User: Fold this.
Amino acid sequence: ILYIICQKIHIICRQRSGQIHCIGLIRCHRTTLSIVDGRISSGKTYGYKIVACNAYTTSKVTTVSRLYLGNVKARAKNTNKGVKIAWNKVAGADSYRMYRKSGNSAYKLMKIAGSGAASWVDSKSVAGKKYTYAVVPYKKQTGGAYTPVTVSCKR
Assistant:
């Protein structure tokens, strides 16, 4: 994102393949200087630049690079072998990490699967317990977004 911050307005731009695309404007009366770039694709790295200026001076350019991984939406169902978690594959992910929690406890890492996986059976689930699962896509050490799913184990 290229933030061009002038006296009364902030122009927000993204640079990709040498081209600059304007993605939004922020008026100076706002206190939050952030914007969500909704026109990006999973698995791609985007470069963003931040420049501040006023009537007197322009700052140095700050450059950041961010990898975007899409959102995993998991589904859960009971099987005779345990709770089966299935999810949509995310472009650019090289692995998926399955987390589980029960009640208000913290998530615990249960399994790491490769990029080709789209389901996993939690054979350690206990009948009568309610679990919440999260499947998080990863590209090396960068984690993506997820939507948790809750299910009661009925084995």
About this structure: The chain has no helices and 14 strands.
